[in-house]
Amino acid sequence: MDNRENNKPKKKSNVVYIDRKKVNEKNNSNKKGAKVGKNSPKIKNTSNAKSAPNVKQIKPGQPKKKPADKKNIDKKPVDKKHSLVDKKHNNKKKTKKGRKINKGRVAIAVVLVLAILFGGFKGIQMLTNKDSKAQTATNETANTENNSNKNDKDTEENSNSKNNQTSSKGQYDMNDEKKERSKKYNIVVDAGHGGNDKGSLDSTETVYEKDVALQIAKKVASRLGRESDVNVVMTRTEDKYVSLEERADIAKRVNADALISIHLNAQKKFGDANGLETWYRGGATDGSKELAASVQQTTASYVEIMSRGILRNNFEILRETTMPAVLVECGFITNVSDMKKLKDPNYQDMLAEGIMQGTLSFLDAKNGKN
After folding, report:
1. Which one of 209, 277, 290, 329 is the catalytic residue?
2. pLDDT for 138-191, tens place per residue?
3. Of the candidates 15, 35, 153, 358, which lies 20 to 30 Å from 2 by C-alpha distance?
4. Does residue 329 have an active-site annotation?
5. Does residue 90 fall inside a structural domain?
6. Strand 325-332 to strand 276-280: parallel, antiparallel, or no bridges (unpaired)?
7. Is the pTM of this model over 0.85?
8. Dihedrals φ, ψ of 174, to 5°?
């Protein structure tokens, strides 16, 4: 048994035995300032005083450094010569940029100024030309007026005053009688009815004879007044009552060469009668029949309407006059077709032209002017 135990391999022990004497000797040698190799373990500072962060420890005998200014920390050293050159160069660039001129805008401005000046010059030139033309025209008219005869002046004065031949009441003005007598023909145009004398009524009962008769009479008088050898007098120029005696008296006062009375015909119960007819005084030897025939024939040739011919009657306006006088029935106010024409201004113009031409043809023939 003892041999077996002696022959068994001995087990290695895991216990490490440290020699305290050797360890203490090593620690003492480190404290005395012995040099530590690269592989020697670092010794921690076990002192209680903690050093402040970012604070450098100053060794004894070393001079203290002044803290640098914050402003100058980031500044780099500047070369004064180069800085002055750079400043001058920058100033030159600024001045060059400020003095740049847009050539396109300058050209446009110059063109506009020239255009304005040219327009003003032309305007002044045109005004001066107009003034010179006006002066020459006035000189020419003055020369022609000085060379014209007295008869020409009289005709001009009478033609300018043709609208003032009647008074505000539609009556003949006796103060102008001397001037009007200088005319060759004195023609009285009488617009039938007027005022409270309404005349006949159309089929619609809205249009009166007095109104249509006045419209046609004014157009006849206007056309006669354009003739240089005719003086026109109207018995009324507005919707006002004038008696038949007064109408005849006006024609006598102006010593009329002819009297034309304008009316519209009518039929009882609004029948279908239509057409144009002219009346003259029965038994007249002063040319009334011839005047009626001339007016009827000429007027019927100017308008599209049935001609009913000339007729005799002793209407008061015809009976009380002493000169050639006729009463023209321009159409039937009671006929729808005739009335449609009579209300048309264009038809009225043609009707008035026919009456005027028939009257002048008669007067020219009577006085041997044909």
Report:
1. 329
2. 666 555 555 555 545 554 555 455 444 444 444 445 555 555 455 589 999 999
3. 15
4. yes
5. no
6. antiparallel
7. no
8. -70, -25
Among residues 211, 215, 217, 209, the alpha carbon closest in space to that of 334 is found at 209
Backbone angles phi, psi at 264, to 5 degrees: -120, 140
Q: What is the CATH number of the domain that holds 345?
A: 3.40.630.40
pLDDT digits (tens, 9 = 90+) for 64-97: 555 555 444 444 555 554 555 555 555 555 554 4
Q: Are 305 and 331 in contact (CB under 8 A)?
A: yes
Residue ranges in the chain assigned as alpha helix (H): 2-7, 20-31, 80-98, 103-147, 150-160, 177-181, 209-225, 244-253, 288-302, 316-319, 336-342, 345-366
For every residue of 46-58, DSSP letters joined together read --SPPPPTT-PPP
Residue 235 included in any domain: yes
> Total domain count for the chain?
1
Assess if residue 168 is contained within a domain: yes
Collapsing DSSP to helix, strand or coil, 265 comes out as: strand
Question: Residue 104 domain-assigned?
Answer: no
Please give the Cα distance from 278 to 298 (Å, whole number). Answer: 11
287 vs 90, 280, 281, 320, 325, CA distance in Å? 115, 9, 10, 15, 8
* CA distances from residue 265 to 71, 192, 306 in whole angstroms, order as listed: 122, 11, 13
